[in-house]
Amino acid sequence: MSFRTTVESMSKIMDEMGITELDLERQFLFGVYRKHIHLSKQQMAAAPVAAVASVGTVPSAPKSDAAPITGYVLKSPMVGVAYLAPEPGAKPFVTVGASVKSGDTVALVEAMKTFNPIKSDKDGVVKEILVTDGQAVEYDQPLIVIE
């Protein structure tokens, strides 16, 4: 069975079971291929709370019902996992009400086992933190609001 066929069949199984993340590893003569796959579906945001909660994710409100975000929004430049502190148990990079300067690291986004710093683009005060530590994030998802 080809690797592509394996991924396609696993994707169908993941969809049926409500699984959103998968780590694949395949050994070859010349080494090991590892791949972390994160699936997301836009329609899950509008799913009923009971259905979404059963797969262990936090439901998000549809955009029309959400309060408008005011201020400058830092967005995730990639799909990955957001971390608000440099390591587990450490002091967070920023907290609500904290002053930040342009270039300050405010979070990390892990993608493909690489931790990418998310830096503030402007000076200001952290008004809101829109993600939780260890939360999966999408490309262009709002992370932090700065005023």
Q: Provide a count of the helices.
A: 2
The residue fraction in helices comes out at 10-25%
Please state roughly what percent of the residues sit in beta strands, choosing from under 5%, 5-15%, 15-25%, 25-35%, 35-45% or over 45%.
35-45%
Which descriptor suits the 3D outline?
elongated
Radius of gyration: 18 Å
Number of E strands: 10
User: Cα distance, first to last residue?
Assistant: 53 Å
The run of helices and strands is HEEHEEEEEEEE
Mean pLDDT: 76
Placed side by side, the strands forming the largest sheet appear as 3-10-8-5
- Could you describe the largest sheet, including whether it forms a barrel? 4 strands, antiparallel
Give the low-pLDDT segments. 41-64
Class inferred from helices and paired strands: mainly beta
Outline the structure in words.
The chain is mainly beta. Helix content is 14%, strand content 36%. The chain is built from 2 helices and 10 strands; from the N terminus they run H-E-E-H-E-E-E-E-E-E-E-E. The strands form 3 sheets. It has a 4-stranded antiparallel beta sheet, with no helix packed on it. Strands 7-6-4-9 form a 4-stranded antiparallel beta sheet, with no helix packed on it. The protein has a two-stranded antiparallel ribbon with strand order 1-2. Strand 6 and strand 7 (114-119) form a beta hairpin. The chain is elongated. The model is unreliable at 41-64 (pLDDT under 50).
